[in-house]
Design brief:
8-stranded antiparallel beta sheet; elongated; 3% helix; 54 strands
């Protein structure tokens, strides 16, 4: 989109009024846009995603790509591959199509793709090498390059501009892309700062079509040359259709040379050097008649700025914040739901679908969204000021996890864990540091990376699904652990189909959920231990390397949940704040599909655990999947979004579960033994209603593991029979303090799913009607006695 030039006076006036109104001046660089329910979303000048040149799942894809708009009139775009450190391709006259992604769709189904004319490409090889040839050293040709060879460090944002930072061997490199046009020549440029190195290096610049030929011409008069000194010659790539690419460099050392590889590939060879290099590489698209005048054109475009100047003093892009409303729920129950308004009406029409969050030490929240933004929310529940949402970062790849450590913000995307830095103190991230990007990714829809947690040693954890993913692809169907310094990762546990979160509690105990589907009969909540296998062998719909039948052994869950209780699980959190009342010291589980919350009542049986789940008596506005306690007010906050298999009424939510101090009568403990099931309540019951066995109903059933989707209910007494077994409550024993009831159940045995329903009265006469979904992995032999 081209823009007309403003007069200096008018430009000054616009900047003044934008600053006066708390808005940022518009970037002179273009931005990506897509139509979403909130309007035309201004995504910013960069988008991180898996990106294809040609739409279609069978076409090559840059798995970890970052697309950037170039030039003052948004005339061009370039895709940088953060795994191979190459400029994968550049194009003009178009944009980036994100309509099939989760940026532009509630149920995205594929990668982003190029719209426009592709002007240069590079092959799927390392963008740099210190070897003689460009060879991909990665196993299966997947993942990031070995750290000792090259490593992506991150990117700086400066207005609409981007500077990549990475290492090649021991050399630190800053690499700023750009675009220059005029006189019939369109040129992609990259300005590179390269610190000293002990080894020579090769830079992969571009590759012509398969029938293209490379020749060399003088930078003095445009005459054909045999010499390949980069300071004296430029390369000419001639395609069979007559299109031309002219490749030149300005500022390179005298002994830098061009190399034509395989007839159509251009490489710049740089010598070892003990001082910093600063040079500019130009890939110009033109026609043959411009070859003779290219040296003159180049002479007018030799000036360039040091990329280091773009690593600081970045202008503010997104103003001072967007105020919203805070709605407190009625204090008519012990736990009530408050709502933090989302900035759905914002200057960029951002689609607010909160996907994860955490808190700074002062009570402010950082919230990431599925579209790739991060917002900082201040003044939560301030008695005077409304909540204010400040856009802090954009362009991230499906962020679904966020963790704040020592007030530093870490965000998990599908491509990497990004550590965000506000180096200029403007309330916006200007450096997006790659904390770790060693995970191999798949561009298929379900191959998400979920949540982000830390243990007591500072290690990071997240969980990745395997639904629709090739069974041989590493780092899927697994909990991934990343060292506290980000230097390496390992697989902590396996066997997950479509998990959507996890949590770490006392003693670094990890709890995480998974969702029913193929090889997963129902939703389940797990205690996750190192080396554990949780039942999902791989996607049976993948023909290549299809998984074998389910192994005979898998780690049993804490608790199964039937589909009508939780058709799509979210993440968990351990409640540990005394301000949160009688349900403190319980695991809280979120149901993304049902927009509900559960708390768990756990029982240790030897080294194993089992639990029952009780639902909170309210429904959240969207599919909740993340939960955190705010250290400032001690209350539980949740966030979520609307998408696949959820009954959400809103696209997103950010809400608070607040303890009011009102009385609460609810189960807080569940224990089974050879006598039956014992429920302990938070306050006394009416003894008459508690002793009446007809006020209780118990049923149980098992599930089947199959390669088909989910499972029906099967009798525990007759495994071939579909349906549920009724369990007779023979007697009810009430403890002297009227807080415990023992349900005598004959022949109690391990079962995948039990449901305990009851309608009772509290000691004050209030009716209490609830149900508990529990799993019995083991029946302890020694009975517990009621008081």
């Amino acid at each position: 989109m081209k823009t007309s030039k403003l007069s200096p006076l008018l430009a000054f006036g616009l900047v003044f009024w934008c600053a006066h109104l708390g808005l940022a001046a518009a970037s002179p660089f273009g931005t990506y846009r897509c139509v979403v329910p909130s309007g035309t979303n201004d995504l910013g000048s960069m988008v991180s995603y898996s990106i294809r040149i040609i739409p279609g799942e069978t076409n090559p894809v840059v798995r970890k790509g970052i697309s950037v708009r170039l030039g003052n009139d948004s005339a061009a775009d370039v895709c940088f591959d953060t795994e191979l450190l190459r400029y994968a391709f550049g194009w003009t006259g178009g944009t980036l199509d994100v309509s099939k992604t989760l940026i532009g769709s509630g149920r995205g189904s594929g990668a982003a793709s190029v719209v426009g004319k592709v002007r240069f490409v590079t092959p799927e090889l390392p963008g740099w090498t210190e070897q003689e040839s460009f060879v991909d050293p990665r196993p299966l040709g997947l993942g990031s390059l070995p750290h000792e060879t090259a490593r992506y460090g991150g990117l700086y944002r400066h207005g609409g501009r981007v500077v990549w930072r990475y290492t090649v061997g021991r050399s630190e490199i800053l690499d700023a892309p750009g675009f220059e046009s005029g006189d019939g020549i369109d040129a992609f440029v990259r300005t590179i700062s390269c610190t000293h190195t002990e080894k020579a290096a090769g830079l992969l610049v571009c590759e012509g079509a398969s029938q293209a030929k490379v020749s060399f011409y003088s930078l003095t008069n445009g005459a054909p040359m045999v010499e390949t000194a980069a300071g004296k010659t430029f390369a000419r790539i001639t395609a069979a259709n007559g299109e031309e690419q002219l490749v030149a460099v300005a500022g390179a050392p005298e002994d830098a040379v061009w190399e034509a590889v395989d007839g159509n590939r251009v490489v710049l060879r740089l010598p070892a050097h003990d001082t910093r290099l600063l040079f500019k590489v130009i890939v110009a698209n033109t026609t043959g008649e411009r070859v003779a005048t290219f040296p003159q054109w180049l002479a007018q475009h030799r000036e360039f700025e040091d990329p280091a100047s773009l690593t600081h003093d970045a202008p503010k892009e997104w103003g001072d914040g967007v105020p919203t409303e805070f709605s407190r729920g009625k204090d008519d129950a012990a736990y009530v739901l408050d709502t933090v308004g989302l900035p759905d009406r914002n200057p960029w029409s951002c689609w607010l679908r909160p996907s994860a969050f955490d808190f700074f030490s002062d009570g402010r929240a950082a919230v990431c969204t599925l579209s790739g933004d991060v917002w900082v929310v201040s003044d939560l529940d301030d008695p005077v000021r409304p909540p204010t949402w400040k856009r802090f970062a954009s362009g991230l790849y499906e962020p679904l996890g966020l963790k704040i450590v020592d007030d530093v913000l870490y965000v998990l995307g599908r491509d990497q864990i990004t550590r965000l830095h506000d180096g200029d103190g403007l309330g916006e991230a200007n450096y997006y540091e790659n904390f770790n990007n060693d995970r191999v990714v798949s561009p298929v829809y379900h191959a998400f990376a979920f949540d982000l947690q830390t243990d007591s040693h500072g290690n990071f954890y997240y969980i990745a699904g395997g639904n629709l993913v090739r069974p041989d692809l590493p780092h899927h169907s697994a909990v991934i652990r990343v060292s506290r310094d980000g230097s390496h990762l390992d697989t902590y546990a396996t066997g997950f189909r479509a998990p959507n979160g996890l949590a770490i509690g006392p003693g670094d105990l990890i709890v995480g959920s998974d969702n029913q589907g193929h090889w997963t009969p129902a939703s389940r909540i797990n205690v996750i231990r190192p080396g554990g296998f949780y039942g999902y062998p791989g996607d049976p719909r993948q023909p290549a390397g299809a998984p074998s039948p389910l192994p005979s052994h898998y780690d049993p869950p804490l608790c199964w949940l039937p589909m009508n209780a939780d058709n799509s699980s979210g993440g968990e959190v351990w409640a540990e704040n005394e301000k949160w009342g009688p349900l403190n010291h319980h695991w809280i589980h979120t149901s993304y599909g049902k927009c509900w919350l559960y708390y768990l009542m756990t029982q240790a049986v030897g080294p194993e655990m089992q639990a029952g789940a009780v639902r909170f008596p309210f429904t959240c506005a969207s599919g909740v999947m993340r939960a955190r306690f705010n250290p400032h007010d001690g209350q539980l906050y949740v966030c979520g979004l609307k998408g696949w298999q959820t009954s959400a009424v809103k696209d997103g939510c950010f809400q608070r579960v607040r303890y009011t101090g009102k009385p609460l009568t609810t189960p807080v403990n569940l224990r089974v033994d050879t006598r039956g099931a014992e429920l302990e309540f938070s306050s006394p019951l009416d003894p008459a209603s508690a002793r009446d066995a007809s006020n209780y109903s118990v049923s149980q059933w098992n599930y089947r593991w199959t390669s088909t989707y989910g499972s029906e209910h099967y009798s525990a007494a007759d495994p071939q029979k579909k349906g549920e077994d009724s369990v007779l409550v023979e007697k009810v024993t009430v403890s002297p303090d009227q807080r415990k009831v023992l349900l005598s159940l004959r022949n109690l045995a391990p079962v995948m799913q039990m449901r305990i329903r009851f309608t009772l009265k509290s000691a004050e006469g209030n009716e209490l009607s609830q149900e508990v979904f529990n799993t019995i992995n083991s029946v302890p032999g020694e009975p517990r006695s009621t008081e």
